[in-house]
Every structure is written in C-alpha cells, then in structure tokens.
Specification:
This protein is an alpha+beta fold and about 160 residues long. About 25% of the residues lie in helices and about 35% in strands.
C-alpha cells in the first residue's frame, strides 16, 4: 500500500481543530468530492463508529473509526470497493506557535487487483494521490478555522454532547 504524509497549520486552537475532526455532518464540507455523510452510527470520538461518505449515486465509501487518542490522534479506515480505494488515515494534532499543526498519514490501495497495484507504482499516480491528500488536509484546516460551536454545544458525529 502506498503511503502519503502531509502537514498543514490550522490557525485555530487545538480544541477547535479536534472538535472539527469530530463533526460528522461537517465532513462533506471539507472532504474532496463528498456530497453527504450518512448513517453515522455514533460519536466520532469512539472506536467502532461507522459512517458512509456519499460521492454520487453510485459511489460511496464506508468509514470506521478505529483508534482515538483524544485530543491528538484520530484514525479511520475506509473501503469504497468495488470501484474506489480503501485504506487507513491517521490525523495527528498538536499545538504550535500560531495554531495547531495537523499531520495526515494515509495508506491507500487502488481497486482492480493487479492493475491497481501496477498503477500504484506509477509516479504520476503517486503524485496525484499526494496532491489530492494535501488538498483534503488544507480543506480540513480551513474548515476547522471557520468552525464555531453552536450555542456553546459541540456537535460530535451528528450527536449533541
């Protein structure tokens, strides 16, 4: 599985960035191509919670939260088979002068078996994947910067905490 690591700085305190990571309905606002988030099974700060990212009428990705170390680490796995990718993404957050440093580590696998593995070895495909993952992280950081708690109540995975 190819591995991509990118980092960005969110101009927001760590608590605000962590809360943005747990905003299930907000994922569609920053995740590239996602039109909606459906079937959220619980709070996004609980391992085992699942949800579905809907990209279009035919393409969706099932996501499961697998590991949490609040408020610094959040890991999810996804599977958009048969036509999409699958993999694991870990977000690490820590305070840094001027905001919160956010690191995104992604391991992914392309579909189509041997053809997908051949494509993964292509530098063009690896560079394009890295660019898309970097855009995802940048969009997330901008979302976190703009996010404000509603009436002092944080939304956690579509649930009120």
């Amino acid at each position: 599985m190819p591995d991509v690591r990118v980092a960005d700085l969110a101009d927001a305190p760590p608590e605000q960035v962590w809360a943005a990571q747990l905003d299930g309905p907000g994922i569609a606002a920053w995740f590239p191509g996602a039109r909606s988030v459906q079937d959220i099974s619980g709070p996004l700060d609980q391992p085992g919670t699942t949800y579905v990212l809907r990209f279009n009428p035919l393409l969706r990705s099932r996501v499961e939260i697998t590991e949490i170390e609040a408020p610094v680490m959040h890991t999810r796995v996804w599977n958009a088979r048969p036509l999409g990718t699958r993999g694991r993404a870990t977000v690490l957050m820590h305070a840094e002068e001027g905001g919160t440093r956010v690191d995104l580590d992604v391991h992914y696998q392309l579909p189509l078996g041997p053809l997908g593995r051949l494509l993964e070895s292509s530098s063009w495909v690896r560079h394009r994947a890295a660019r898309e993952i970097r855009k995802e992280l940048q969009a997330f950081c901008r979302f976190a910067e703009q996010r404000k708690p509603q009436d002092g109540v944080e939304r956690i995975g579509g649930y009120k905490s």
